Amino acid sequence: MSILADARALDAQEPVCDACLGRVFADRSHGLTNDERGSSLRIAAALDDDEPYESVDTADCWVCEGLCDEFDEWAERCAAAVEDVEFDTYQVGTRTPPLVEENELLFREGAGLDEDAGELFKSEFNREVGKRVGRLTDTAVDFGRPDVQFTLDLEADRVEVDVHSAFVYGRYRKLERDIPQTEWPCNACDGSGYVGKQPCEKCDGTGYLYQDSVEGLTAPVVRDVMDGTDAKFHGAGREDVDARMLGTGRPFVIEVMEPRRRHVDTDRLEGDINAFAEGRVEVEGLRLADYEMVERVKGLDASKRYRAEVEFGDAVDADDLAAALEELEGATIEQYTPHRVDHRRASLTRTREVYETSGELDDDTHATVEIHGAGGLYIKELVSGDEGRTNPSLAGLLGVDAEVTALDVVGVYGEDEEFEDEAYFREETAGDEEVDTDEPEAEASGDGDDAADD
Ligand SMILES: [Zn+2]
Ligand SMILES: [Zn+2]
């Protein structure tokens, strides 16, 4: 049958609005709305038949029950729902009333057409309301992961809004020891601060084993500036609680849930965080990032550079130390899982490469060494030998006991590529008031992402 014959057969089931008629032919031609398709077909049929043309009032349409007249109204409701939310991208989804879905089938069947001819009601609704939302809010549609997701529940007469998280990337330095990376709830009171009705003795009723954390000193500032409901810290691995993080710092992403501000000035944010952390933690290189940066930070293979204070059981000669460090440089180390590492972790022998070593004696029983090694290398054991469980080791090569008395991480580097890839950052855009747009594991004792040592 010709397209006009199809249109006549459909139109015979009157009253049907132009959009519902045109939607059956949505795959014909481009640059037309379904409303234009429907009205054109109806006019063409009237001309062909030389009969009077009669337009149909959308409100009378039995297929959509007048919903195709409501694109503007729904778009305005979407825009009003996010009036005080900053966002750059959005997506519209529609829940079609079951009755309308049924009508769509009956309508096509009644004309002897395929039940999926043209496009779905909800596709048109998403697109037509979406176009209008973009115009009203001056934002762009994003079919991947938009800043804001609107769901139009037509039957419930309700617009649901999901404001997706915003992400800030940066590097942190932890300038003091005994600060965990993420908040560490007290295990005696499960973080409640109370045992029964009494304040918990173990944590002085605070609910936390450590009063500060890198997360606690940074994330709340970002949450406040972005006016979100919560914030979560994602680190590129973590150092031991008693190790400092110095040098070029460790990459991290702070995720802010349901932010009302996205166009923040990251230089100013950096200053705000550093003022709040009062020198215990410092951040730098803050950038607005995409959500994929969380996975990148958590998953990118990274090597680490450490500085360790080492104490020897006996006097060590400077030349012997230099020779031992040279021997370790480029060596592949076999390490059986250390005792001090989480006992839940399966015991196994791992091999890790040492890239670079250097060091000097401070006196004949103390040295400061720097070691750059592959992610997962246990540094304390590389120095001590861990009673023969790590080979080779500094202690083994020197033939004396050796122990790390203080450890700092001084660099975290992507093994194959830099963490800072432009593809993962968002451009900062000019705003009005201010210039400019799955779960971390619980921190367990001695159980770092990149091994206990780093
Ligand atoms: Zn209709
Ligand atoms: Zn407690």
Helix content: 25-40%
Tell me the radius of gyration: 32 Å
Bound molecules: zinc ion
Please describe the biggest sheet, giving its number of strands, its sense, and whether it closes into a barrel. Answer: 10 strands, mixed
Low-confidence spans? 431-454
Ends distance: 73 Å
Secondary structure tally, helices: 12
**E-strand count:** 16
Which structural category fits the helices and strands?
A: alpha+beta
Mean pLDDT comes to 91
Portion of residues in beta strands equals 25-35%
Helix and strand string, N-terminal first? HHHHEHHEEEEEEHEEHEHEHEEEHEHE
Shape: elongated
Word description of this protein:
The protein is an alpha+beta fold and 454 residues long. The chain contains 12 helices and 16 strands. The strands form 3 sheets. Strands 5, 8, 9, 10, 11, 12, 13, 14, 15 and 16 form a 10-stranded mixed sheet that branches. A 4-stranded mixed sheet has the order 2-1-3-4. The protein has a two-stranded antiparallel sheet with strand order 6-7. A hairpin with a 2-residue loop joins strand 13 and strand 14 (366-373). Helix 1 (3-11) crosses helix 3, helix 4 (71-81) packs across helix 6 (121-137) and helix 7 packs across helix 8. The model is unreliable at 431-454 (pLDDT under 50). The structure holds zinc ion (ZN) (2 copies).
